[in-house]
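Quarterly update from the structural biology core.
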Amino acid sequence: MTTTHDARPRWVFGYGSLMWKPGFKTPETRSARLHGWHRAFCIYSEHYRGTPAKPGLILGLLPGGTCRGIAHRLPADRYEAVRRYLIRREIDNDGVYQETIRPIRLDDGRIVPALVYLADRKHRQFAGKLPLAKAVALVGQGRGVTGSNLDYLRNTVAHLAEMGLRDRALEKLASRAGRRR
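Predicted structure, tokenized:
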């Protein structure tokens, strides 16, 4: 379900850098779950964490499972400005994410509609599930306008740990990519 300008969900779901660097002041942040999707390094990055000549690999959501992350409530007084910012950040640079609205479960049990950025599986930068060795190579070489791909991966693992969560696949990727340097 694609959003329209008339849709005003009050939350955005973060499963990667939106967890630790939303880029806007939020009136409330909560742990949350998105059912039916899981976090995966499944998108070639040619801007933020890589270049066209040396792409990196960034997170997207793939069907199946459950993704635990962070929900940021959007500020009512700056709603339109924050929505424009999120569209610029998540969609305008590469166009690999699609903005949708999905129900998420907040840590207090409420189920609320939230903006969620899903990987467009038809986009040329969609990598899908890659073999570990290929993912390690991409993460190891990736450096873009927002820094190194390995730092992005390590930040994700660290923020999940702060939430009391483990993602063994991401931990394994971080360990192997870190040894490669």
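The helical segments are 17-20, 79-92, 132-141, 149-162, 168-180.
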